[in-house]
Write a structure and sequence with these properties.
alpha+beta; 2 domains; three-stranded antiparallel sheet; 230 residues; five-stranded mixed sheet; 7 helices
C-alpha cells in the first residue's frame, strides 16, 4: 500500500514538474515574441516601401556610420547608393567587364525596360559607370570580386574606400585602380566624403525583372539604403 502511495506521489510530482517546465517555456517564448516585436518597431529598415529617391528619413550620419553598412551590403544583399544634394547619384567606378558576358536579365536593366533604379547606371562609348553597391548586379555583371568568396568583396571595398588597387583573383594581373578613378580621385571614397554629412533613407525598391530560368517576368523587391549629401 505504501509503495502505491509513494508511486502516486512521484507521479504527481513529475506532473507538476512537467507543467512548470511547460509554463516556463511558454513564458520564455512570449518574452521572445515581445522582444522581437519591440525590436521590429525600433528597426527603421523593416517594411519600409519606397521608390528610389524617396523613403523614410532615418537619421543624419557620417562616414563612421556609413562604412559598417557598406561592409554588410554583400552579406545581406541590399543596395547602397550615394546621392548629391540634388538627388543625382554619385558615380563610384567604371565597370571593366564585358557586357557580352552579362546575365540576360541584367542587360534589360541597362535598356531601361523594367527597373526604376536604372538611373544608377551610365553608358557611353568608353564603358559603363556604376553608381551603386549591389551584390546581385555585380554578380550579373561578372565583376571579378564576385568569385566565390566574401574576402574578394571585402578587398574590393577596401580598395574603393581607400583609393587602392583590386587585383583580379584569376591570376591575369588585371586590376581596378581606384586611386586613379575619375570618379573617386586620389584617396578613394573616404577622402571624397570626409567631413561630409548625409541623410540616410531606408526602404525597398520593387520592380519587374526577367527570370532566365522560368522565361517569365517576375516581381523583385530589394532593400535599399540611400545616403544623400546634406
Amino acid at each position: 500500500m505504501e509503495n502505491a502511495i509513494d508511486a502516486l506521489k512521484m507521479a504527481f510530482g513529475m506532473l507538476v514538474f512537467v507543467m512548470a517546465l511547460t509554463l516556463a517555456i511558454r513564458t520564455l517564448g512570449m518574452a521572445r515574441e515581445t522582444a522581437d516585436i519591440m525590436l521590429t518597431k525600433a528597426d527603421p529598415t523593416t517594411h519600409a516601401e519606397y521608390e528610389l529617391g524617396t523613403g523614410d528619413l532615418v537619421r543624419t550620419v557620417g562616414l563612421e556610420t556609413i562604412i559598417p553598412s557598406l561592409y554588410k551590403y554583400y552579406k545581406e544583399d541590399y543596395m547602397v547608393v550615394f546621392q548629391q544634394r540634388n538627388g543625382e547619384p554619385y558615380k563610384i567606378y567604371r565597370s571593366q567587364t564585358n557586357n557580352v558576358l552579362w546575365a540576360d536579365s541584367y542587360k534589360n536593366l541597362w535598356n531601361n525596360n523594367y527597373d526604376p533604379t536604372s538611373d544608377l547606371r551610365f553608358n557611353d562609348d568608353n564603358g559603363y559607370d556604376i553608381a551603386c553597391f549591389d551584390v546581385e548586379e555585380e554578380t550579373a555583371r561578372r565583376e571579378p570580386w564576385t568569385a566565390n568568396a566574401d574576402i574578394y568583396f571585402k578587398r574590393n571595398l577596401d580598395a574603393i574606400l581607400y583609393g587602392g588597387v583590386f587585383t583580379y583573383p584569376d591570376g591575369s594581373g588585371r586590376t581596378y585602380d581606384y586611386g586613379q578613378s575619375q570618379h573617386l580621385g586620389n584617396g578613394g571614397l573616404i577622402k571624397k566624403f570626409e567631413n561630409k554629412q548625409f541623410d540616410e533613407y531606408i526602404g525597398e525598391s520593387t520592380y519587374e525583372t526577367f527570370n532566365e530560368y522560368s522565361q517569365m517576368m517576375a516581381t523583385k523587391t530589394k532593400r535599399v539604403i540611400i545616403y544623400r549629401e546634406k
